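[step 3/7] fold_predict: job queued, chain A
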Amino acid sequence: GLGFVDHTYSQGVTVGSSLKMTKNTKFSASYTEAFSSADTSTDSLLSLNSSNLSSSAFALGFQAEQILRPDDTLSFSISQPLRIGGGSMSLAHDDYYDEDETLHSRSVDIDLRPSGRQMDYQLEYVVLSRRDKLRMGLFAYYSDEYLHQEGSSDHGVGFRLTKAF
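[step 4/7] structure written:
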């Protein structure tokens, strides 16, 4: 009753490019647009009120090499994760029986437009040890309007260690 498996189709396209600004710096950008279409019939508990939905995302990045040593990299990125542009769904369900044992149903409209637009910021410093095939990185991130909810945020720091063999 809650599935769209047989009746929902999504297609997306991403356009991206990188520009080497100097020998050690690079700027990258990408934009994604996705389109979803679905059957709007009401034969299930949950149904879309619009047959076509669009979503979008983008990312911008800057990378500089050889900041403090010959094998390090500093990266900064700003991105917006894929987010639906709008639309609505309806949830139709049996709600309760009254004293005469009559079943009452209920329909609730659900606005799919998020209250915010998430923006992610990440800064990462990476050192590469070619001899040991080891990559060590320290990063920090901040998400404004986290999960596309106005007034919500998330942040953190972390360490990445990668060993190739």
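[step 5/7] annotate
The mean pLDDT is 88.
DSSP finds no helices and ten strands in the chain.
exit 0
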